[in-house]
Amino acid sequence: MKTAVTGAVASIALLLSACGGGAENDDQNEQNQSSQSRQDGDQSGQEQSGQDSMNEQGVTTVDDIYGPAASKVPTDPGNEGSAKGMVDDPVGTAASNNPLLTSLTKAVQTAGLVDTLNKSDASYTVFAPANSAFEKLDPATLEALLDDPAKKEQLTNILTYHVVPERMNAEELGNAGEVETVNGKTVPISGSGENIKIDGANVQVGNVPTANATVFVIDEVLMPPKQ
Questions:
Q1: Residue 158 phi, psi (nearest 5)
Q2: How far apart (Å, rounded) are the C-alpha atoms in residues 100 and 130?
Q3: pLDDT at 144
Q4: Which residues pair with residue 129 across a beta bridge?
Q5: Which of 5, 13, 175, 213 is deepest in the core (most CB within 10 A)?
Q6: Pairing mode, if any, of strands 178-180 and 163-164?
Q7: For every residue of 116-174, which 3-state class applies, written as one string?
């Protein structure tokens, strides 16, 4: 009888031990699953963050560049004025290295806007008149704007009419229909996609990326509407 009782107690102990081990295993499995879920969530969040960065409004790549004068942009990646060379520079510096924009660069320097355009924490869309656009202006008027200190405010008003305080690509500009500039005045946008016009000006090279701006080289110097 004593032997039977002892055997029964041993059996119960083994059973309890087995049940306890199973519970511990279940807890461990739950912990492992929870840890894996957190890791998967973190990885998913990192991937989503990367995708959001890549899809940031208005940010383009060199593959998005288009326009009839795109072939005039230097192609040597080692050239700071090339499409790839401009990507890492803020827009004031990037424009100064581009052979299509030497007249604009002089105007920006005269107006004292280089530091503003180069702000690293800023985001812009810049309508950049090509050299040929400045050649359409009356020479006396252009000379006065660039050389007469009394004309600096007028020059600044004209140049800031070419700058939008957010990044936008061609599609976004076309969808907007009009955009407010740093000048405070609104620039009308007509057309859509790669066929947009900026206040009637044709885009010679569009969707050009720089470190803090998306640039559209245009064939006219835009004049802000009068009060």
A1: -65, -45
A2: 5
A3: 93
A4: 218
A5: 213
A6: unpaired
A7: HHCCCCCCEEEEEECHHHHHCCCHHHHHHHHHCHHHHHHHHHHHHCCEECCCCCHHHHH
Cross-strand bridge partners of residue 125: 164, 214
Distance, CA of 164 to CA of 85 (rounded, Å): 23
**Six token digits for residue 192:** 């859509």
CA angle 210, 116, 52 (to 5 degrees): 40
CB 130 within 8 A of CB 99: no
Q: Which two tokens stand for residue 35?
A: 């840890």
- Interatomic CA distance for residues 125 and 117, integer angstroms: 10
First to last CA, the chain: 112
Backbone angles phi, psi at 214, to 5 degrees: -110, 130
Cβ atoms of residues 108 and 145 within 8 Å: no
Q: Residue 159, Cβ neighbours under 10 Å: how many?
A: 26
The amino acid that residue 198 corresponds to is I
What are the 10-residue block averages of pLDDT along the chain, 227 residues in total? 44 43 51 53 46 66 92 80 88 93 96 95 96 94 93 96 97 96 96 95 96 97 88
pLDDT of residue 78: 80
Two tokens, residue 190: 């007509």
Give strand pairing partners of 205: 217
Query: At residue 110, what is the residue type?
Result: T
Copy the structure tokens of residue 57: 């409004």
Q: Which residues of 199-217 are buried (b: 16+ CB within 10 A; e: fewer)?
A: bebbbbbbbbbbebbbbbb
Instruction: For tokens 């080692």, name the residue.
Output: 78
